[in-house]
Amino acid sequence: MKFLSVRDLRGKSAQVWKDLPREREMVITSNGRPIAILAAVNESNLEEAVSAFRQARAVEAVAALQRRSVEQGKDRMSLEEINAEINEVRNKRAR
Description:
By secondary structure, the chain is α+β, with helices and mostly antiparallel strands. About 60% of the residues lie in helices and about 20% in strands.
């Protein structure tokens, strides 16, 4: 996978667009840190590419929630504690 700075993207954009179909993906960096991904798409695979991207983000969001629950010790909650938490939220919403 090719890494490309924001500066290079700005200064060599014509070359980037030419290379993107061959590279398939490029990671854009700012100050050496990844900030974006460029992915080659076309009319026939656009919907599938967007769907795959959204699915990957959803998987990462679930993983982040799981990590946070472990950090907070909520991964060891009993079923009764879980149900009490759910009921508390439902009661707040009903008000």
